[in-house]
Design brief:
This protein is α+β, with helices and mostly antiparallel strands. The protein has three domains: 27-73 and 107-226 and 402-456, 2-Layer Sandwich (BirA Bifunctional Protein, domain 2), CATH 3.30.930.10; 253-380, YbaK/aminoacyl-tRNA synthetase-associated domain (YbaK protein, Alpha-Beta Complex), CATH 3.90.960.10; 465-568, Rossmann fold (3-Layer(aba) Sandwich), CATH 3.40.50.800. Helix content is 25%, strand content 29%. It has 14 helices and 33 strands. Strands 3, 7, 8, 9, 10, 11, 12, 23 and 26 form a nine-stranded mixed beta sheet that branches. Strands 17-15-16-18-21 form a five-stranded mixed beta sheet. The chain has a five-stranded mixed beta sheet with strand order 30-29-31-32-33, with helices on both faces. A hairpin with a 6-residue loop joins strand 11 and strand 12. Helix 1 (21-28) packs across helix 10, helix 2 packs antiparallel against helix 6 (167-187) and helix 2 (44-63) crosses helix 10. The longest helix has 21 residues, at 167-187. The two termini are 48 Å apart.
C-alpha cells in the first residue's frame, strides 16, 4: 500500500483530553477518530490492527473446539427479565421500546441469547460439551468513559460460552480456555498475570482476570512474591495482624470528641494506634440497612460485603435513612443498635478492647468489648487486603499491591443462567433422565486489547507494535526524489510489496517528517532508501521495538527480513499454564 493512498492523517499533537499513551498515540497515529465521549471510529490502520487481533483470537479458540456464531446486539427484554439482569443492572444497560411498544435492550453481554439458543438445541448428552463464541459489538452506557479505548461505551468483544453436562466437565474444560487466553495475549506481545477475581454481575462459582501490569491501569491486584498467589483486591485474602488480648475488662466510657471524625484524627486525639478503633460503615443492601464493622486500620471491601450478603444492589446508606433512625454517619458503632443487621470483619474478636462511635454527634466510646457490648453474630472477611499484609497462602511473604489493566475475564457460571428460576435449560442423560446444563463464559475486549498493547509497547516517539498485530509489517521510507532513489524504492516495493505487508511512504514530505511518522506508527521494521545509501547499493533497516539499525545490501534484504521477523516472533515458553485434566 502506498502511503499517499492509505488515508493516514497523523497529528503533531494529540487533543488535550488524551492523557494515557495509548489514547495519545492512537489519535496521533490516525488509528481512531473520536465521534463522542467513549465512541470511536476505527480508521484504516486501527481496523487492520484490530482484525489481526481477531484472527489470533479465532485461531486459538478454534484450536480448542470453539464454534463461531453471531448474535444480535438488540435483545428482547423478556430474555433479560428471565435472568433478572434487566432489573439488577443499572443505567449502564440501555433499555428502549420499538415502534410497537415492545421492550428491548442493547446487549452488554450475550448470556441470555446464547442460553436461549442452547435451550432450543441442546437436548441430549450427545450434544455436550459445546463452546460457542462470537466477536460482536457491545453497548455499555459508561458513566465516565476515559483513556481512549480503555473505557468506552461501544466496543467489540470476544465473548465465548461453553455448555457442559456437569460441573466436573466444566472443570475439565476450564483450563483449556485459561491456557488459550495466555497464548492469545502472548501472541499479542503481552505477558498477562492470571488472578483470582470476583464474579460480579456475571455470577458463578469462580473466575479469573488476566491482568497487564500498567501504571495507567484502573484495577488493583495483589501478588505474593513468595508463592505467586495473585488476586484482585476485591477477592484477595491476606493474614490480618492480631491485636494483643486485653487482660482487663473496664467499663465503657463516653468521651466528648467535638469535630473529630476520621480514624487518623481519632488516633491523634486518643493517642492510640488505628487498629484499636472500630470503623462502622452503613450500607443499604437490597433496601435493607446493614452495618459493616471493621478495624480502623482496614477499609471495607464493598465487593466482599456484597458477596457475603448475596446482595444484588449495595450502596452507601444515605444520611436521611440514618437520621430517620436517630443516627449520625460520622459517629456510628454497633453498640446499642437494634433492628439493623451487623456484619463484623473476622479480625474483630472478643479478646481486645476498642474505641468506637457512640451513635450520637461528637461522642465516642472507650473500652468497647465485642461480645460484651455488642453481639458478634455475623463474622466474615469483608476488608481490602493491604500492601505488606502477610500472604494467607504461603504465610511467608508480604503481599505487593499492583496496578493493572484487565485484558480478559473467565467465569465458571455454573447453573446461574440454566436454573429453573432463570432460563431453565436441561438435557437428557444416557438413562433418559433430565439434568441441568452447566455453563462457563469467557470475554476479551478487542479494542481494549489493542490499547493495552500500546500501553506496554511505546516510547516518547510513538508506538512500538508487535509484528503480530501491527497494521503493516514494514514501512518503506523513500528519502529524496532523485531518479535513482525513486527507482530503487520502486524496485523494492515491487519485489516485496506482494510478499510482505508493506507500506510505501511515497509522499513528497521532508525526511524528518517521514522518519517521525514511521516511528509514531510503530510499524515493526523500517526500510530507508536515500541517495547516500543508493550509491553503495544499501538500505537502512531499523527494528522499531529495539531501536537497532542495520545497513543491508539490497540483494540481502529478503534474507535479512526473514531473520528479523523470526527474532520478533513472540515466545510461547514459560507461560503460567493451568494443568489440563484428562
Amino acid at each position: 500500500m502506498r502511503y499517499s493512498q492509505a488515508f493516514i492523517h497523523t497529528l503533531f499533537e494529540a487533543p488535550k483530553e488524551a492523557e494515557t499513551p495509548s489514547h495519545i498515540f492512537l489519535l496521533r497515529g490516525s488509528f481512531v477518530y473520536p465521534i463522542a465521549a467513549g465512541l470511536y471510529s476505527l480508521m484504516p490502520l486501527g481496523h487492520r490492527a484490530v482484525e489481526k487481533i481477531k484472527r489470533i483470537i479465532r485461531e486459538e479458540l478454534d484450536a480448542i473446539g470453539g464454534l463461531e456464531v453471531t448474535m444480535p446486539v438488540v435483545n428482547p427484554a423478556e430474555l433479560w427479565k428471565k435472568t433478572g439482569r434487566y432489573f439488577h443492572i443499572g443505567d449502564e444497560l440501555i433499555r428502549f421500546k420499538d415502534r410497537r411498544d415492545r421492550q428491548f435492550v442493547l446487549a452488554m453481554t450475550h448470556e441470555e441469547v446464547v442460553t436461549d439458543i442452547a435451550k432450543q438445541f441442546v437436548r441430549s448428552y450427545r450434544d455436550l460439551p459445546v463452546m460457542l463464541y462470537q466477536i460482536q459489538t457491545k453497548i455499555r452506557d459508561e458513566a465516565r468513559p476515559r483513556a481512549g479505548l480503555l473505557r468506552v461505551r461501544e466496543f467489540q468483544m470476544k465473548d465465548a460460552y461453553s455448555f457442559h453436562p456437569d460441573f466436573n466437565d466444566l472443570d475439565v474444560y476450564y483450563p483449556k480456555i485459561y491456557n488459550a487466553y495466555l497464548r492469545i495475549f502472548a501472541r499479542c506481545g503481552l505477558k498477562s498475570t492470571p488472578i483470582e477475581a470476583d464474579s460480579g454481575i456475571m455470577g458463578g462459582s469462580g473466575s479469573h482476570e488476566f491482568m497487564l501490569e500498567s501504571v495507567n491501569g484502573e484495577d488493583h491486584f495483589v501478588l505474593c512474591p513468595g508463592c505467586g498467589y495473585a488476586a484482585n483486591t476485591e477477592k484477595a485474602v491476606g493474614m490480618k495482624p492480631e491485636r494483643t488480648p486485653s487482660t482487663q475488662s473496664p467499663a465503657r466510657e463516653k468521651v466528648h470528641t467535638p469535630g473529630v471524625k476520621t480514624i487518623a484524627d481519632l488516633a491523634g486525639f486518643f493517642d492510640a494506634p488505628q487498629e484499636s478503633f472500630l470503623k462502622t460503615v452503613a450500607y443499604v443492601a437490597d433496601e435493607n440497612l446493614v452495618f459493616a464493622v471493621v478495624r480502623g486500620d482496614f477499609n471495607v471491601s464493598a465487593t466482599k460485603l456484597g458477596a457475603y450478603l448475596k446482595a444484588v444492589h449495595l450502596d452507601y446508606a444515605p444520611e436521611k435513612i440514618l437520621s430517620g433512625k436517630g443516627l449520625n454517619g460520622g459517629f456510628l458503632s454497633p453498640v446499642g443498635i437494634k433492628g439493623v443487621r451487623i456484619v463484623c470483619d473476622s479480625a474483630i474478636t472478643e479478646s481486645a478492647l476498642y474505641i468506637a462511635g457512640a451513635n450520637e454527634p461528637d461522642m465516642h466510646l472507650k473500652n468497647v468489648l465485642p461480645g460484651r457490648d455488642f453481639e458478634l453474630k455475623e463474622s466474615a472477611d469483608i476488608v481490602e487486603v493491604r500492601e505488606g499484609d502477610r500472604c494467607a497462602v504461603c504465610g511467608k511473604a508480604d503481599l505487593e499491591l499492583r496496578r493493572g489493566i484487565e485484558l480478559g475475564h473467565t467465569f465458571k457460571l455454573g447453573v446461574k443462567y440454566t436454573a429453573p428460576e432463570s432460563m431453565d435449560v436441561t438435557y437428557l442423560d444416557g438413562a433418559g433422565e433430565p439434568n441441568r446444563v452447566v455453563m462457563g463464559c469467557y470475554g476479551i475486549g478487542v479494542e481494549r486489547l489493542l490499547a493495552s498493547i500500546i500501553e506496554k509497547w511505546h516510547d516518547e516517539s510513538g508506538m512500538r507494535l508487535p509484528a503480530s498485530i501491527a497494521p503493516y509489517q514494514i514501512i518503506l521510507s523513500q528519502l529524496g526524489n532523485q531518479p535513482e532513489v525513486v527507482a530503487m524504492a520502486e524496485r523494492i516495493y515491487s519485489k516485496f510489496g506482494p510478499v510482505w505487508e508493506l507500506l510505501f511512504d511515497d509522499r513528497s514530505e521532508s525526511p524528518g517528517v517521514k522518519l517521525k511518522d514511521a516511528d509514531l506508527l510503530g510499524i515493526p521494521v523500517r526500510l530507508v532508501v536515500s541517495r547516500k545509501l543508493e550509491k553503495s547499493g544499501d538500505v537502512e533497516i531499523k527494528i522499531r521495538q529495539t531501536g537497532e539499525v542495520r545497513i543491508c545490501p539490497e540483494k540481502d534484504i529478503e534474507a535479512t527480513l526473514e531473520a528479523i521477523f523470526r527474532e520478533l516472533e513472540p515466545s510461547m515458553e514459560n507461560l503460567p499454564y493451568m494443568d489440563e485434566k484428562a
